[in-house]
């Protein structure tokens, strides 16, 4: 609470004091009051004036200073009321009550919005599961009656299945901790599952799928890791170069404190100007604009899930040469106790 601003706001009190004092002097002179009485009266006037002016200032100063300081310190400023003691002056009580009512109203609105979002999320998840049933049936029919379904039709079904799965994982992304279970898993099994799932597209695009030195155990959730790897491999397939020899190579580097899974391809790569934004939501970059196949959501979801799982994901690339994505799994002794 600034003293200068406070005095400026109370400037009218100075004028009121001067007018009253001058009027009082005129009365004293009219009744020929002695100088000693006038001086004593003036002294009492000044004491009363300063008490009236500064006592309220010091009463209010602590409350308003605490209010402003706590607002600046809090990440969620609307919680400031919880940090304040109820003031003992009337204006402060009015402000405190107003803040209470505002906070109460905001909490109620937030609750309604969260409830709406939760209902919508549950509906989306239910809808996706319902849609996946006929889609899975179509995929099964296409596999059992290959003569009636050409490769392009099957690939489009696969793409549709991938996009629906992406929506499901995105819907779960905010509360993913309720959906995953950290335990020791075999990387080779996860890679095998992802490879089989994308086998048709890999073969159709004549890409060599190379897996070397992946017999390692890591602490993660296998279902979520399969989804993350699937997004990376889908990008490698989507952005392959038109060359004689295309490959996707998966290897593992083992170190004392961490295990790193590396997915490398010799596709069209990523321009240096786009590298810093590849994990941003809905960012498609130069490659996405050229191919019209990218949603910009796969790597965004993968990044978020790696963060929640405690993994680190990085990407390096050189345009028209290669792209290398690495996922680092820390070796945490805390998990060793729980497994």
Please, could you describe this protein's structure?
- By secondary structure, the protein is of the alpha+beta class.
- It folds into 3 domains: 3-85, no CATH class; 112-179; 183-338, Heat Shock Protein 90 (2-Layer Sandwich).
- 61% of the residues lie in helices and 14% in strands.
- The strands form 2 sheets. Strands 2-4-5-7-6 form a 5-stranded mixed beta sheet.
- The longest helix has 55 residues, at 90-144.
What's a quick, concise take on this entry?
It contains twelve helices and seven strands.
Protein topology:
Layout: H1 3-9, H2 11-30, H3 35-73, H4 90-144, H5 151-173, E1 183-186, H6 187-197, H7 199-204, E2 207-211, E3 217-220, H8 222-238, E4 246-254, E5 258-265, H9 272-275, H10 285-291, H11 298-309, E6 312-318, E7 322-330, H12 333-338
Parallel strand pairs: 2-4
Antiparallel strand pairs: 1-3, 4-5, 5-7, 6-7
Helix pairs in contact: 2-3, 4-5, 5-11, 6-8, 8-11
Q: Enumerate how many helices there are, as a single number.
A: 12
Distance between the termini: 56 Å
What Rg do the Cα atoms give? 35 Å
Helix content: 55-70%
């Amino acid at each position: 609470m600034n003293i200068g601003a406070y005095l400026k706001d109370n400037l009218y009190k100075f004028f009121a004091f001067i007018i009253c004092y001058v009027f009082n002097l005129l009365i004293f002179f009219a009744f020929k009051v002695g100088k000693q009485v006038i001086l004593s009266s003036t002294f009492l006037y000044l004491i009363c004036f300063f008490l009236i002016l500064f006592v309220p200032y010091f009463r209010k100063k602590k409350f308003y200073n605490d209010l402003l300081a706590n607002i600046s310190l809090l990440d969620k400023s609307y919680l400031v009321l919880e940090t304040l003691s109820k003031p003992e002056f009337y204006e402060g009580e009015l402000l405190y009550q107003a803040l209470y009512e505002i906070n109460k109203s905001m909490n109620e609105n937030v609750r309604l919005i969260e409830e709406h979002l939760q209902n919508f999320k549950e509906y989306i998840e239910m809808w996706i599961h319902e849609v996946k049933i006929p889609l899975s049936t179509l995929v099964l029919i296409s596999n059992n009656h290959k003569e009636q379904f050409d490769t392009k039709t099957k690939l489009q079904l696969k793409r549709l299945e991938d996009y629906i799965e992406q929506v499901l994982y995105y819907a779960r992304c905010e509360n993913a901790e309720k959906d995953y279970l950290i335990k020791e898993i075999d990387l080779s099994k996860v890679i095998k599952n992802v490879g089989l799932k994308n086998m048709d597209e890999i073969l159709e695009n004549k890409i060599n799928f190379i897996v070397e030195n992946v017999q390692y155990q890591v602490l993660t959730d296998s279902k979520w890791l399969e989804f993350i790897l699937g997004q990376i491999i889908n990008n490698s397939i989507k952005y392959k170069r038109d060359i004689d020899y295309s490959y996707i190579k998966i290897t593992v580097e083992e170190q004392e404190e961490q295990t790193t899974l590396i997915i490398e391809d010799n596709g069209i790569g990523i321009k240096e100007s786009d590298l810093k934004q590849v994990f941003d939501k809905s960012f498609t970059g130069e490659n996405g604009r050229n191919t019209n196949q990218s949603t910009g959501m796969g790597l965004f979801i993968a990044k978020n899930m790696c963060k929640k799982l405690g993994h680190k994901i990085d990407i390096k690339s050189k345009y028209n040469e290669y792209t290398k994505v690495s996922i680092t799994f820390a070796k945490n002794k805390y998990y060793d106790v729980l497994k």
